[in-house]
């Protein structure tokens, strides 16, 4: 064998090193959400390795905090060190970056502006926007904040809040609702129940006579709302029939963002009535 051929051919050491890495990855992959705690024998049986090999791999992982030992059972679970390893990736997988290509597709599909909104506890804020190509359009500039109870994105976020929290925000004025009284409070709770049931919120000229908005929730892996996809549009361009199409497109886009985030929509329980 020539020196050149020797340089390009994996040596026994390379092969051994590769097999060690493959075995280590296999050990990590045996831990699941359903079975977070595993013993050495269980892992060895699942990956087809000798117990002594698995023990050495786990000892190294434990030193690096990639696994940790349960103090009572002495079995192993994944460790917090994995979060440090995955940190740079997790930082990139933020809602804004994940949603951007979906928003672009949504704007191309509908011809209207699309935006991603987040909630700070008392207002909806725009963190990403793809503007409509139409000359006449409604936009949601980056950093724009909405506190109007009838805003579609505000409805989405409030639909996930306990009824008493919603009432407190409205009564304090943190969320604006002109002419608020007990009857309108009850009516607003019903409106939020409709958002949950339907899967998206509607603002048909209620906060601004010239504007229509639909918004749908984005969920994280716990099933909590972490963002909302919003479509704002001029009212003259949106008939009641087209409103349904925009709502369905918005909900589908929010679903794609949820999937890209590794999230899951929760089951839709009936929202408790006001009281």
Protein described:
This protein is of the alpha+beta class and 275 residues long. It is 47% helix and 16% strand. The protein is built from 10 helices and 8 strands. The strands form 2 sheets. A 6-stranded antiparallel sheet has the order 5-4-3-8-7-6, sandwiched between helices. Strand 6 and strand 7 (211-219) form a beta hairpin. Helix 6 (95-110) packs antiparallel against helix 10. The chain starts with a helix and ends in a 15-residue tail after the last helix.
Strand and helix map with partners:
Elements: H1 3-8, H2 12-29, H3 40-47, H4 51-63, E1 67-69, E2 76-78, H5 81-92, H6 95-110, E3 114-119, E4 124-130, E5 145-146, H7 152-158, H8 163-172, H9 182-198, E6 201-204, E7 211-219, E8 225-234, H10 240-260
Antiparallel strand pairs: 1-2, 3-4, 3-8, 4-5, 6-7, 7-8
The portion of residues assigned to helices is 40-55%
Number of strands: 8
Radius of gyration using CA atoms only: 26 Å
Q: Which geometry do the CA atoms define?
A: elongated
**Helix count, DSSP H or I runs of 4 or more residues:** 10
């Amino acid at each position: 064998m020539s020196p050149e051929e020797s340089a390009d051919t994996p040596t026994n050491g390379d092969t051994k090193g590769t097999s060690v890495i493959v075995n280590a990855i296999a050990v990590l992959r045996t831990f699941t959400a359903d079975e977070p705690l595993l013993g050495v024998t269980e892992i060895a049986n699942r990956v087809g390795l000798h117990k002594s090999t698995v023990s050495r791999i786990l000892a190294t992982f434990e030193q690096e905090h990639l696994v940790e030992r349960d103090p009572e059972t002495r079995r192993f679970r994944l460790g917090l060190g994995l979060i440090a390893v995955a940190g740079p990736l997790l930082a990139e997988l933020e809602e804004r970056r994940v949603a951007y290509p979906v928003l672009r597709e949504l704007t191309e599909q509908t011809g209207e502006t699309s935006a991603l909104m987040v909630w700070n506890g008392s207002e909806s804020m725009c963190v990403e926007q793809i503007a409509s190509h139409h000359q006449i359009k409604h936009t949601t500039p980056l950093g724009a904040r909405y506190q109007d109870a009838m805003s579609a994105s505000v409805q989405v976020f409030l639909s996930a809040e306990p009824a008493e929290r919603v009432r407190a925000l409205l009564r304090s004025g943190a969320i604006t609702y002109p002419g608020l009284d007990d009857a309108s409070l009850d009516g607003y709770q019903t409106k939020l129940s409709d958002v949950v049931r339907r899967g998206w919120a509607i603002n048909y000229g209620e906060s601004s006579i010239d504007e229509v908005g639909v918004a749908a929730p984005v969920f994280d892996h716990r099933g909590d709302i972490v963002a909302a996809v919003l479509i704002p549009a001029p009212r003259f361009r949106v008939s009641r029939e087209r409103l349904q199409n925009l709502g369905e497109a918005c909900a589908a886009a929010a679903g794609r963002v949820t999937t890209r985030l590794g999230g899951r929509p929760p089951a839709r329980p009936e929202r408790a009535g006001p009281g």
